[in-house]
Each structure stands twice: as structure tokens, then as C-alpha cells.
Prior knowledge:
Layout: H1 2-17, E1 24-28, H2 33-62, H3 69-102, E2 105-109
Antiparallel strand pairs: 1-2
Amino acid sequence: DYSERRAEKSQSIMNNLLPPSEPTRVTLRRIAPGPYIKWYTLALIISGSSVAGMCTAWYALNGQLRGKVVSYFLVMVLYYAVPGLIGSILFALIYNSLAGKFGGLQFDIVVEKETLFPSPPPPERREVSLPKIPEA
């Protein structure tokens, strides 16, 4: 009985520490330039590589490259990576300067509340049996 009350008390304490499942408005006030530039440029390198692979294969199969396959592929990737790098730097700088003056992007986030310690079922639904005590 004591352990059940203690478990219920622990459950209620832990559940109160979790945020409610109501929308919470979050404002993105600043973008950290380093990670943003890195990930945005990486995303454009990946998409540029796939486009470059398709274009290179197309032109190589048509016979239009004549041995310049690798250099054409690398130039095509750079056509995506360099503007991605410059664009991400400019976006991060412009966003950070304007977000301070006008406010940033706002998002409504809902955090689902999950119980860390689920309640045990009532005694009539429990599927355990008590161990038999051997008689002495």
C-alpha cells in the first residue's frame, strides 16, 4: 500500500514537471550563422550533386562532353554550392538584423504530455498472482 501511494505521488510530481499539451508560441529571434550556413550549404551540395550526376550522365551519353565528365560534374556541383554558401550567409545576416527590429518568425509548438510512470491497473484487472508461501 505504501509503495503504491509513493508511486502515485512520484507520478503526479513528474507529470506536473512536464509541459502541458497546449500550444506554446515560440519566436525565432536569431539564427546561429555557423550551423545554418553549414547545413544549408550541405543541402545544396547534395541536391547539386544529384542534379550534376543526372546532367553529366545525360550529356556523356549524348557524346557532348568528350572526356570532360569529372570536370563538368565538379563545376555543376560548384554552381549549386557557391550560391548556396553566399545565400545562406546573406540570409542569416539579414534575418538576424531584421528579427531584432521587427520580431522573428513565430511558431506554435504542441508538446504532448506523456506519463513517465504509468499508473498500475486496478486490482481487479491485474494479471499477477501472489506467490505461494510454503508451509513450515
